[in-house]
Write a structure and sequence with these properties.
Blueprint (H helix, E strand, L loop, with lengths): L1 E4 L5 H4 L28 E4 L1 E17 L3 E4 L4 E6 L5 E2 L4 E5 L2 E7 L15 H15 L11 H13 L13 E4 L3 E6 L6 E2 L4 E7 L2 E8 L11 E5 L5 E9 L15 E8 L15 E17 L3 E3 L7 E7 L2 E13 L2 E5 L8 E4 L3
Parallel strand pairs: 8-9
Antiparallel strand pairs: 1-3, 2-22, 3-13, 3-17, 4-12, 5-7, 5-11, 6-10, 7-8, 10-12, 13-16, 14-15, 14-17, 15-16, 17-21, 18-19, 19-20, 19-22, 20-21
Pfam families: PG_binding_1 (PF01471)
Keywords: Coiled coil
GO cellular component, one term: cell envelope
């Protein structure tokens, strides 16, 4: 997915950037003046005040965060499955197995056992919270114990779903997810026989993200909170930040899958409004900013001269009318062909020598 990388010029290359006609100092921070028309550079550039940004731009695409597989807990035949793109909420069926709905409920604890009278635990607590929020909380005391009040609430819920009113909730009856989900892929087709732990659907949160792939060497750009600028398929630009990385096992079927790089999820300022009306099948452009310096003095990289002598360092050939002098400078960040400079007497608008184009 790599599209372009901003050129980063190593300072070692700067030392040979300017040749003939440049005065090289061998000592301290003094200046060497030349006579009229003597030692003038073949061309000049202007010192400017600007923002320097180190960045890398790669392709990405609009997706949804936190993709994960929904697996069948028991063996059966898929008789109904939610269509791709569907948003499923609490109390609605994600799919049907053997003509029985598997209902989405909210909670962090997966359904790992049959829940019935006498059961205790955090799974019971989240079941009771869901029953209450679905409108079956009359007479229900919400706690970690599956009592007769829980059984009665479950029976009322089962009756509403046209299911057998057993008062028990089996592993294959519900799926717990952190919240509402978007179905992004159907892993099992209608009438498929699925066994325990076989994927039926792939779901994700309803929060849109932009997914982009970076190389392993770009690990520093994947840190949570790294600022990015996204150019959407429509051409609009939106700021955002890195929300995290995606595990390889969660990337099956996603463009750029595999383990040769790092896939990151970027959240945009403005959330779902930021991508409203955008073509999710088209490519977006993601610019990762690794470092930025605002309002610094900068010159073209080729204006910086390596000074000879035991003190070494770097300088600029400052041109004043028909004379020039070498001024010692400190260098900083380099980006987009410019380098940050600082030193006594430097100011915006000064002319400095560069090699002839």
């Amino acid at each position: 997915m790599k599209r372009s990388t901003t050129a980063l010029v190593a300072l070692g290359a700067v030392t040979a950037a300017v040749t003939g006609g440049v005065l090289l100092l061998g000592v301290g921070g003094g200046a060497g003046a030349a006579g009229p028309d003597d030692g003038l550079p073949p061309a000049t550039a202007t010192i400017v005040r600007t923002d320097l940004v180190l960045s890398k731009t790669v392709d990405g695409r609009i997706d949804f965060a936190q993709r994960r597989a929904v697996k069948a807990p028991v063996e059966g035949t898929v008789t109904v499955a939610a269509a791709e793109g569907t948003t499923v909420r609490r109390g609605q069926a994600l799919y049907e197995l053997n003509d029985k709905p598997v209902t989405l409920l909210y909670g962090p604890v997966p359904a790992f056992r049959e829940m019935k009278v006498g059961a205790r635990g955090s799974d019971v607590l989240q079941l009771e919270r869901n029953l209450r929020d679905l409108g079956y909380g009359a007479g229900l005391y919400v706690d970690t114990e599956y009592g007769s009040d829980t059984e009665a609430a479950v029976k009322r819920w089962q009756k509403q779903l046209n299911r057998e009113t057993t008062g028990r909730v089996g592993r294959g009856d519900v799926v717990f997810q952190p919240g509402e989900v978007t179905v992004v892929a159907a892993d099992a087709a209608l009438a498929d026989q699925v066994g325990p732990d076989a994927p039926v659907l792939t779901v994700a949160s309803t929060k849109p993200v932009v997914r982009a792939r970076l190389e392993q060497t770009d690990g520093a750009l994947t840190a949570r909170g790294t600022k990015v600028e996204v150019t959407l398929p429509s051409g609009k630009t939106r700021p955002g930040k890195v929300a995290g990385t995606v595990r390889p096992e969660a990337e099956e079927g996603v463009e750029g899958g595999g383990q040769d790089g790092i896939t990151v999820e970027v959240v945009l300022d403005g959330g779902s409004r930021a991508v409203s009306g955008e073509d999710a099948e088209a490519t977006a452009s993601v610019r990762f900013v690794s470092e930025a310096r605002e309002g610094v003095l900068a010159v073209p990289v080729e204006a910086v001269v390596a000074l000879r002598g035991e003190n070494g360092g770097y300088g600029l050939q400052v041109v004043r009318g028909r004379t020039s002098e070498m001024v010692r400078v400190e260098t900083g960040m380099t980006a987009d062909g410019r380098i940050e400079v600082s030193g006594a007497g430097l100011r915006v608008g000064m002319k400095v020598g560069v090699a002839k184009p």
